[in-house]
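Worked example

This section walks through a single chain of length 424. The input is the sequence exactly as stored; nothing has been trimmed or padded.
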Amino acid sequence: MTNYNTYTLQNGLRIIHKPSVAQVVYCGYQIAAGTRDELSGEEGMAHFCEHMTFKGTRTRNALQIINGLEQLGGDLNAFTNKEDTTFYAAIQKEHIAKAVSLLTDIVFNSTYPQHEIDKEVEVICDEIESYNDSPAELIYDEFENMLFEGHPLGHNILGQAEQLRTFKTEDALRFVRRNYLPEKAVFFIYGNVSFKWVVKQLEKEFKQSSGAFAMPSGNPLGIANADITSSLITNSAEQGGAAEQIIKEIGSHQAHVMIGTKGYDIHHPMRIPLYLLNNILGGPSMNARLNLALRERNGLVYTVESTMVSYSDTGMWSIYFGCDPHDVNKCLRLVRRELDKVMQKPLSAHALRTAKQQLKGQIAIACDNREQFALDFGKSYLHYGWEKNVDKLFESIDKVTAGDIQKVANELFATDKLKVLIFR
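Given that input, the structure is written out below as tokens.
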């Protein structure tokens, strides 16, 4: 299932290509720059620049960028994460040259005009207010800030409206000149396109682009990502006793609850066992243990899920549920019971085999979403130089033992290692 082609241009840009017979091509730039790359006073800048990158280059204005692919029926989009920013397109094969040209132009030649900033900043502020009106989403950011307090990984990706309104053209340019560099980026492409053509087209685009080569090479300010490795799976509640709990009164008719702790980084040998255990407890299937305990047997929640995120040097594992305020304590007891079960008793051979089969099936179905698969293999190559290999992932899942599952549970799920955040 591998079948990738890779190449590195002279300017340091890495290219990863996966051929397919489909006539729709997915491609884009993924840049190793996100929320954790923001300096003090830049909170929200990565997401701000993602928006503003569409607002004008040396040769295209905002309307020309909008119409560049969409008038051909294509799709142009972007998003920002804690460790990366992605600009990508979906287009018919016959228009791929236009997509490559447009994407390269906006990523490496955007000018961030002040008159566009003055308009777009209010759009971003509306996005922030909309987000603040959704406690089921907001609690995830609040919880991550609770875990990574004082570190950029804990910052809200959107930032604060008051600060965003102070950002100017020179602030955006300062951020992108430090971060939007070819050597910090990957161009990914998935479709029925010649790899040789892709390489030549990108070489051509960069030769024509004064912006990319005018930018300083490397990291001119000597700024590195803040390292969080030393605090991997520690938190202030590890002295013993009950889980640290914070209650925030928001006047909601429903209580929103998160429970969790710091988890494993992407390279950690126990990451795959946690991946499997997380799916057993709170994965997307209706037979996940937390869904059975809280919803199916007791009718206490509409949604309960567990989530794991692995960053380059740390991670996060959490459970979320929403319920009536008077049911919070009962739900917490039921969650605790399920965590205790996996800590105290290893999975049976049958349960382990079934869990592996279920997870591998979910992965196989997810890979059928070609857009998401393209984004996934691009991100893997960007951060780790891995050519995404689903067969190897399946092998890693098959190697997980019941002992591994129990070890992870005992390492992460002890009461005094968990934090609890409640919105009500």
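What to look for: Residues 230-423 form a domain with the Cytochrome Bc1 Complex; Chain A, domain 1 fold (CATH 3.30.830.10).
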